[in-house]
């Protein structure tokens, strides 16, 4: 499914001072029974935002009006580790998140982000810590994907890197499957011809 | 420069379809496993785009995550779970995907039935919308978890853009001491290198101890690799692998089998292959492990005590420790052996295989589940359940007061009928002790199957080595 094209996003950033915020925290497993992709924002960080009785937990960053719809999250290391559930990314999208800054990401989550129009920005740990301070002070963050630059009030621009083909897809909101089918079908055909020679047993189960 | 290659390199090179601008590689995907929870959106994308599966026969689908395990057959009581299974069944029918029927002999957890049916083969690339797809690496397959969008790409094009990982060798030296299981090695490794200690790396387990392991043990090791942050855990295929696979329904036969084995023998890392990182673990020093916190690296030997944040200098680690102790309802300095439990869960793709059930049954035999403890045994697959029943293990468990269930993910993931109530504490053979993983507010202690059974009959965390 094509994602929303990403050029530049500006707004506040929600600081999450915690390492290993896993996808079970971002999107608790019990909501996985929902088969839709839209409308998942209300479940994002559900058990951090809401008590068992449904009331808001005071003091949680997303329950602070200033950060409730922040388009950027600045988080501790290993953000999005754990389960591969893409719902974690769809829930962030539903929340309005378009970029996450962390020292490291769960790899499946990172890939899921880029396929859905969220930019995962990897920066050194000390820099992330400094950005959290600024985020908490309410500084404006601008993520400029075209220039691969993060601009934060009070700081010189910070360069970040996104793999070239991912960047192009994000900027254009391209659907990766379409891209691959359109550009690489002959390569895939050729591969299968070769593999049929080297590993014929991988083709033996096919109906004649 | 040397041309020596690791197992990972060989698997990667043999599946490279094209190099993409920006450094990624288009990798051919030989096999995909689908389950009811992570696949619906991928099928929707296929339908919306009017696409067909490029090679439906390279897929297998099964319902495991959401299904109830108390009863099997008839209508699923939970309407959402029922709808999810029905949707999977409609999707596999529409797109001609082979399906392991919920009530059939091949149903089970994705990472248990792949190997059991011979769908999982050495030298292949395997994906599934589930992070514990690392499990299949135990067969020398390049296997990794993916998201729903990626599943759609594999369905349509049989490829995925991937970036080559660095390599990490985890060398196991010495022999496993009595009472110590592959699960303990995995937990000890994660405790040592951290929950993101292997991010960006493909891990290969080597050493005489690995060669001596059963496929079940190797699968446990590879399964837990994702908890160290790596998407890929590998063991080179050998005679143990071939003996496991021979004769399985989807494994090659006759001349193709011989050709396959010859090919598989060539996959092992070359002797002089260089890894980016090497970690050596001396098994002699490993004791039965138990996690005390909310990340798998927060793990200690069973004789240990809950850490005291006051003694931790690093501010981040201190904060993480405080948070975990508070969530887990423990006290700094508390002996792990004194921690009373409410629940025991034996099962999951980490430890739901027949060997795991045998290890747990050996402790349960002739004993009773402690008063006030609810203990369940959930085989990883219908075939495992059947085998266990043939060996009489079901009676060992039920006579000891365990519940004997049907196959599924069950209490590994709180999205079916089996879950903890807030504040309840569980000794669990699953793989994740994250906050809320076994139910909102639930508290998980990760242990081996034998340790879980020992906890069940003791009513608190216990050292299996004291059970003669
Ligand atoms: S048993 Fe647990 S970890 Fe394994 S596939 Fe099921 S939910 Fe995932």
Task: Please give the domain count of chain A.
Answer: 1
Count of discrete structural domains of chain B: 3
Strand line-up of the largest beta sheet of chain B: 5-4-3-6-7
**Gross CATH architecture of the largest domain in chain B:** 2-Layer Sandwich
Q: What is bound: which ligands?
A: iron/sulfur cluster
Helix content of chain A: 25-40%
The end-to-end span of chain A amounts to: 33 Å
Q: Which of globular, elongated, flat, extended, rod-shaped describes the shape of chain B? A: globular
Radius of gyration of chain B: 21 Å
What kind of sheet is the major sheet of chain A?
4 strands, antiparallel
Structural class of chain B: alpha/beta
What number is the mean pLDDT of chain B?
96
Number of helices of chain A: 7
Give the CATH superfamily of the largest domain in chain B: Aconitase, domain 3
- The CATH homologous superfamily of chain A is termed Aconitase, domain 4
Q: Biggest protein-protein interface?
A: A-B, 63 and 86 residues
* Poorly predicted segments of chain B: none
Shape of chain A: globular
Can you give a write-up of this model?
The complex is a heterodimer of chains A (208) and B (468). Helix content of chain A is 34%, strand content 14%. Chain A has 208 residues and is of the alpha/beta class. Chain A has a single domain, classed as Aconitase, domain 4, CATH 3.20.19.10. In chain A, the strands form two sheets. In chain A, strands 1-6-7-8 form a four-stranded antiparallel β-sheet, with helices on one face. Chain A has a four-stranded parallel β-sheet with strand order 2-3-4-5. Chain A is globular, with a radius of gyration of 20 Å. The model of chain A has no long low-confidence stretch (mean pLDDT 92). Chain B folds into three domains: 157 residues, Aconitase, domain 3; 90 residues, Aconitase, Domain 2 (3-Layer(aba) Sandwich); 179 residues, Aconitase, domain 3 (2-Layer Sandwich). In chain B, the strands form five sheets. In chain B, strands 5-4-3-6-7 form a five-stranded parallel β-sheet. Chain B is globular, with a radius of gyration of 21 Å. At the A-B interface, helix 4, helix 6 and helix 7 of A face helix 2, helix 3, helix 5, helix 10 and helix 11 of B. The site of iron/sulfur cluster has 14 residues of chain B, from helix 4 and helix 12.
């Amino acid at each position: 499914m094509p994602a929303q094209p990403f050029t530049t996003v500006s707004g506040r950033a929600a600081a999450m001072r915690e390492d290993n915020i896993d996808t079970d925290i971002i999107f608790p497993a019990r909501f996985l029974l929902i088969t839709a992709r839209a409308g998942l924002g209300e479940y994002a960080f559900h058990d951090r935002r809401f008590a068992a009785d449904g009331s808001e937990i005071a003091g949680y960053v997303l329950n602070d009006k200033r950060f409730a719809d922040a388009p950027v999250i600045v988080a501790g290391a290993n953000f999005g580790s754990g389960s591969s559930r893409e719902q974690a990314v769809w829930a962030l999208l539903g929340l309005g998140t378009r970029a996450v800054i962390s020292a490291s990401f769960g790899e499946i989550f990172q890939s899921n982000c880029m396929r859905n129009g969220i930019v995962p920005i990897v920066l050194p740990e000390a820099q992330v810590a400094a950005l959290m301070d600024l985020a908490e002070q309410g500084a404006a963050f601008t993520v400029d994907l075209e220039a691969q630059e993060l601009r934060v009030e009070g700081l010189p621009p910070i360069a970040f890197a996104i793999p070239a083909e991912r960047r192009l897809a994000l900027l254009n909101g391209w659907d990766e499957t379409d891209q691959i089918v359109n550009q690489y079908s002959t390569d895939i055909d050729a591969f299968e011809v070769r593999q049929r020679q080297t590993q014929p047993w991988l083709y033996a189960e096919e109906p004649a | 420069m040397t041309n020596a290659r690791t197992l990972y390199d060989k698997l990667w090179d043999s599946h490279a379809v094209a190099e993409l601008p920006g450094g990624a590689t288009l990798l051919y995907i030989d096999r995909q496993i689908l389950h009811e929870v992570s696949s619906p959106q991928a099928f929707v994308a296929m339908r919306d785009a009017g696409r067909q599966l490029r090679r439906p026969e390279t897929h297998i689908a099964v319902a495991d995550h959401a299904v109830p395990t108390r009863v099997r057959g008839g209508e699923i009581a939970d309407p959402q779970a029922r709808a999810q299974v029905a949707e999977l069944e409609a999707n596999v029918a529409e797109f001609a995907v082979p399906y392991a029927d919920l009530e059939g002999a091949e149903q089970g957890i994705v990472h248990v039935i792949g190997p059991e049916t011979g769908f999982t083969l050495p030298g292949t690339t395997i994906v599934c919308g589930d992070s514990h797809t690392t499990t299949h690496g135990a067969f020398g397959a390049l296997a990794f978890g993916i998201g729903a969008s990626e599943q759609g790409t594999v369905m349509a094009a049989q490829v995925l853009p991937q970036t080559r990982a660095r390599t990490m060798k985890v060398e196991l030296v010495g022999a496993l001491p009595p009472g110590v299981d592959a699960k303990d090695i995995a937990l000890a490794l994660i405790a040592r290198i951290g929950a993101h200690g292997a991010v960006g790396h493909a891990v290969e387990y080597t050493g005489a101890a690995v060669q001596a392991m059963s496929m079940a043990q190797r699968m446990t090791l590879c399964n837990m690799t994702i908890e160290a942050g790596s998407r890929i855990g590998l063991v080179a295929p050998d005679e143990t692998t071939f003996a496991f696979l021979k004769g399985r329904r989807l494994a090659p036969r006759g001349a193709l089998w011989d050709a396959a084995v010859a090919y598989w023998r060539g996959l092992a890392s070359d002797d002089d292959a260089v890894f980016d990182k090497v970690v050596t673990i001396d098994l002699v020093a490993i004791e039965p492990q138990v996690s005390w916190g909310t990340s798998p690296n927060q793990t200690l030997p069973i004789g240990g005590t809950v850490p005291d944040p006051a003694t931790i200098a690093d501010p981040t680690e201190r904060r993480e420790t405080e948070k975990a102790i508070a969530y887990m309802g423990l006290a700094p300095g508390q002996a792990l052996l004194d921690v009373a439990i409410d629940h025991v869960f034996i099962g999951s793709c980490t430890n739901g295989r027949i060997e795991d059930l045998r290890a747990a049954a050996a402790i349960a035999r002739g004993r009773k589940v402690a008063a006030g403890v609810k203990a369940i045994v959930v085989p990883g697959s219908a075939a495992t359940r059947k085998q266990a029943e043939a060996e009489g293990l079901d009676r060992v468990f039920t006579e000891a007061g365990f519940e004997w269930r049907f196959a599924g993910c069950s209490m590994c993931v709180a999205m079916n009928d089996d879950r903890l109530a807030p504040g309840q504490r569980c000794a669990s053979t699953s793989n994740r002790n994250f906050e809320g993983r076994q139910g909102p507010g639930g508290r998980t202690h990760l242990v081996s199957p034998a340790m879980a059974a020992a906890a069940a009959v003791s009513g608190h965390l216990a050292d299996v080595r004291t059970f003669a």
